[in-house]
Amino acid sequence: MPAARPSFAVITGEQVADTLTGNEKLVVEVVEETYRLHGRGDSVNPPSYFLRFPDRPSSRIIALPASIGGAKSTDGIKWISSFPENVAAGIPRASAVLILNDHDTGYPFACLESSIISASRTAASAALAADRLSTPARGGRPRRVGFIGTGLIARYIHHYLQATDWAFDAIGVHDLSAEHAASFAGYLGDTSGDAAVTVHDNAEDLVRGSDLVILATVAGTPHLHDPSWFGHNPLVLNVSLRDLAPEILLASTNVLDDVEHCLKADTSPHLVEQLTGNRDFVDGTLFDVLEGRLTPPADRPVVFSPFGLGVLDLALGRLVHDQLHASGRLAVVDGFFHELDRYGRK
Length: 346
Fold this sequence. Notes:
Helix content is about 35%, strand content about 25%. The chain is built from 11 helices and 15 strands.
C-alpha cells in the first residue's frame, strides 16, 4: 500500500491563539498527559542545542528536537530564539517556529508559529505544578502570589492560573525595570478582580510577602541568595531557572520536570550539583508528584524547576493542528513537496 501523498500546512500565530484561548484547562490536561507519557518512557527528548554568538553574547537560538508517543505519535523540533535586546526595540524577546513530522514517513506536515505555544506550555506546566504541589498539608492553594519578572511569560502564567480557577487576595510585582513593573501591575489591576496589586522596589519584600513566588526573568546568574527570605516556606516556580543561588535550593525541597535536562547550562540546580558533586538535593520530578510517589513537606520551601521539554511543544502543536484540521481551517500549501517519484514520473 503506497503512502498517502504528503501535505504541508502553515499555521499562523493568530490561528494558534484562537485555538488555545478558552481551552486553557484542556491545555493543562494535555501537558499533564505528556508529562505522564514522558515519565513512562514513551518519548524521546534529547538535550537542547544552544546556538550562541560571539558578537551577541546575550542572545541565543535553541533547537529542541523531540518525539512523543501515545495515541497521536508525533516527531518534530522547536526552533526558538531569545534576543533580550528586542524588548528595547518594542518587539518580544522570543520568537519561534515548530515543525511537526509524521511518525510513519518522517515527512514534515506542519509549520506553526510557536512563541504562543511555547508560552502556553510553560504557563500550563507552571499551573499544573502549582496545583499539585499546593497540598492540603501545605495549606492548599496560596492566596498571596509574587511575580519577579514581568514579561510575556509572567502574563501567561497569571492567565493560566486564573483560567484554572486560582484566586488571589494579594499580588506582588518586582522587576528591574520600573516601567515594565508598572505596566504589568496595570494589566493585573485590570484582570485580577479585587486582588490588591503592589509593586515592590526590592525582591526581598516581594518574596517575604508571597506564598507563591513566580520567577520569570532573563537572569543569567543568581540574584536571590538569602535562604532566610524563604523562611515562611513558600512554593517557588523557578521558571527562569537561574535566579536562585545554590544555598536556597539546598534549604528547599526540589522538584524538577526532568533531571538530566535541568542539570545543564548553569541552571540553579546545575550550580548545586557543581557545588556539592552530587544530586542528593533533588527530591523528585513532577511525574513523581503526579504518580503519588512524592508529597512535598510543609516545613520547607518547595522549588519547582522546569527546564521546558520539547515534547510539551509537540503535544500542543499537534492539538492545534488537529483542531484546525477538524474545523476545515487548515491552510495547506499546495505543491510544497514536489519530487515525490524516484524517477520523476508525473
